[in-house]
Amino acid sequence: MVPKRIIIESGKETSAYWRDLWSYRELLYYLTLRDILIRYKQTFLGIAWSAFRPLLTIFVFTIVFGRIAHLPDNGIPYSIMVCCAILPWQFFSNALTDASNSLVNNSEILTKVYFPRMIFPISAISISLVDFAISFGILCLLMLFYGFVPAWTIVALPLFLAIAFATSLGAGFLISALNVRFRDFKFIVPFLLQLGLFISPVGYNSNTGSSLVPERWKVFYYLNPMAGVIDGFRWSVIGGSRAPLYLPGIYMSLTVSLLILLLGISFFRKVEKDFVDII
User: Fold this and answer.
1) In which residue ranges of the chain is pLDDT below 70?
2) Hey, CA dihedral for 115, 119, 121, 124, is it positive or negative?
3) Rounded to whole angstroms, how far apart are CA atoms 260 and 278?
4) What is the pTM of this model?
5) Domain regions of the chain by residue span
6) Of 54, 93, 74, which is closest to residue 205 (Cα–Cα)?
């Protein structure tokens, strides 16, 4: 009986590459589990930090914009309105930060054995999904505290989370690949995320934010895909009457998100073969 020969090499065709990625799904699971354990190792609060960070942000935004600036809330508890924005924004922010450094932080593994390198950014973003699931409990507790019943539109929430995930994934592929060659991105990404926090409707709702943008500028406003995601989260939880949805903006954000995803995958696959030589 002739023994079966197994050749371990990078899939040269696109279909072979995606088969490789699926074959290494268990590695994705263990990398994600490893990073979760390392992130909260020897911390006093442990995984509770996933809830504490957005809770502190919600508190600050509620005091500054709700109590001091007195931004209108349309009869919605301001902390709930802010929480609906903080959760997707922090998911995106954490996912992009972790994904952009995922290749550099795992350089020792990357240079020793073959597997699809996309596993690293995907693993980093998967950790942020776990954090999001824990943080979502804050929104549930706030709704329970205020006796707030979510609208039926909450069934659409996974759709907007999927848009945020696609945006994080595409941007994560792109920036992690660039970060291998240009380490400047470890400084650029935090700055871009800080800027994005102010140009996204986090501290204000759709009526006081998106709808105040002049019509001729809305197409540029929603080029930021997280603007559509945050508006969509609020609409899903609060309902259309108090958090109206600007559909052209949602379509624009969805289109930009898909373009970022396709660009990220294309660029990552193009330069992936050079990672070992550069890193």
Assistant:
1) 1-15, 42-47, 65-74, 203-214, 240-242
2) negative
3) 24
4) 0.84
5) 14-278
6) 74
